[in-house]
Each structure stands twice: as C-alpha cells, then as structure tokens.
Specification:
about 200 residues; alpha+beta; five-stranded antiparallel beta sheet; about 60% helix; about 20% strand
Length: about 200
C-alpha cells in the first residue's frame, strides 16, 4: 500500500497513468468501432455507430482536459505552493531569533538550528511531495536501505524543507526519525541533499 501511495505522489507517474488510461480507452473504442463497422449497413447499425463515435469523442475530451489540468497542477501550482509553505515556515522560525540576537555566522547558525531541532516529535502522516522533493527524499532513503547498519541510518525519513548548506548552496533538508508508536516520529538525524544528488549528514 505504501508503495502505491509513493507511486502516485510522483507527478510524472500520475501523468503517465492518465495518459496510459487514455491510450487504453482508444484501443478499446477502436475495436468496438471495427465491430460495428463490420455489421450490415442498416439504419439501426448506423445509429449505433454514430452513438459510439459521439460517446468516444466526449470521453476523450474529458480525459484530455483532466490530463492537462493534472499537468498544470503538478508543474505550476504545486511547486509554488510548496515554495510558499517552505518560505513561510522558515521565516516564522527565524523571526524570534532575529529580534533577540544579532545575525550569526552561517555555520554557527546552522549548528544552532540543528541542535534546536534535535529530538523534535512530528506526526507520522506522509504528505504529498513534488517530484524534486520526492527525488531528494529517495536519495537518502535508498542509500540507507542499502546500508542499514550505518550509524546514521534512521527508521523513517521525511522531507523537511529547503536550507542553506555549505558555501551558501541551497540544499534540501531531509529528516531521519525514530518511530514512536504508529503515529509519531522523533527526529534523530538531519541530511542535506545537494543539487548534484550527493548528500551529507548535518546532524
């Protein structure tokens, strides 16, 4: 079940699934058309054939509109929503610190943030991710599946947001969590995934 959920969380897989369904419908309607076309040329059979053609046209229009809408949502709307949510969460975390302390050096700030996040408990529910976010999550998750005995491995992994890594490079922050029952996760590790596809353990 989890694999199916992950499958449909990837925008490209969702789009390909709808496209495959459209192709399947075209094949089914094609064979139905051939069946009616071979029947005797009577008024009743012509009426059936006309209904089949009109019905096929309507169904194809509905699925084509659905595919276009899905592509627009996955490629334009979802990334903007994700970016806005990340920016809002980042600014809300930094605001109290900015009022009480002066701006620290990047590395010192990153270390303090990692220390304050340690032991954070979150809900275990998985949330939809964009294709890039899910790709970055898999970079860490797949590595530790193959290296389960590594001391930096965790029981579960979740996307946390964007952060600034070494040399000011934008990175994706992935959290490694310990399971607390079936509904809660406790943060134990932080991983930074770089645009190159490499990652390091930040905490």
């Amino acid at each position: 079940m989890g694999a199916i959920i992950h499958f449909f969380q990837v925008p490209l897989y969702r789009e390909l699934s709808v496209a495959a369904l459209i192709i399947l419908l075209i094949i089914v309607y094609y064979f139905r058309y051939l069946h009616f076309a071979r029947l005797p040329d009577t008024r009743l059979h012509r009426r059936w054939l006309d209904k089949l053609i009109h019905g096929t046209r309507r169904v194809m229009i509905v699925f084509a509109v659905a595919l276009v809408g899905l592509v627009v949502y996955d490629r334009l709307i979802m990334p903007r929503m994700s970016t806005s949510a990340t920016a809002s969460a980042t600014s809300s975390k930094r605001a109290p610190a900015d009022r009480t302390k002066k701006k620290a050096a990047p590395k010192a700030s990153a270390k303090k943030q990692a220390a304050s996040s340690s032991g954070e408990v979150i809900d275990a529910t998985e949330h939809p991710l964009s294709s890039q976010q899910y790709h970055d999550l898999l970079v860490v998750e797949n590595y530790y599946k193959k290296n389960a005995t590594d001391e930096n491995a965790a029981e579960a992994y979740r996307y946390r947001g964007q952060a600034t890594g070494n040399a000011g490079v934008k990175v994706t922050e992935i959290g490694g969590y310990q399971k607390l029952g079936s509904k809660k996760l406790k943060l134990t590790h932080l991983y930074w995934v770089y645009p190159s596809g490499q990652f390091d353990v930040h905490q």
